[in-house]
Design goal:
Elements lengths: L2 E5 L2 E3 L5 E8 L8 E6 L6 E6 L5 E3 L7 E6 L4 E6 L8 E9 L1 E4 L3 E5 L2
Parallel strand pairs: 2-11
Antiparallel strand pairs: 1-3, 3-8, 4-5, 4-9, 5-6, 7-8, 9-10, 9-11
Length: 114
């Protein structure tokens, strides 16, 4: 079955960096667009970044220039490199793919705090 497993979250100081990973299985990873979403406490889940099967990328205005989404089709993994982190980046980050229906990972917590 389809599985998305995130890792790499944690506690980081403002200005720091983290790299999230999402290991995918159960579908043909290379032909699917992949997304990262995040949800902060009391807020709606929001789209952070998307990478198409061809490697084209789009970003939310709030993270453009600081975050980079990438993929390794040989490893069935999508990444989110997060630099210059701010307190407002604190959220649970989710990997997403639309495989007939929306598929979500379990999420990984990112906390930006001094």
């Amino acid at each position: 079955q389809v599985q998305l497993v995130e890792s790499g979250g944690g506690l980081v100081q403002p200005g720091g960096s983290l790299r999230l990973s999402c290991a995918a299985s159960g579908f043909i990873f290379s032909i699917n667009a992949m997304d990262w979403y995040r949800q902060a406490p009391g807020k709606q889940r929001e789209l952070v970044a998307t990478i198409t099967s061809y490697g084209s990328t789009t970003y939310a205005d709030s993270v453009r220039g600081r975050f980079t989404i990438s993929r390794d089709n040989a490893k069935n993994t999508v990444y989110l490199q997060m630099n210059s982190l701010k307190s407002e980046d604190t959220a649970v980050y989710y990997c997403h793919a639309k495989i007939s229906v929306d598929r979500w990972g379990q999420g990984t917590q990112v906390t930006v705090s001094s």
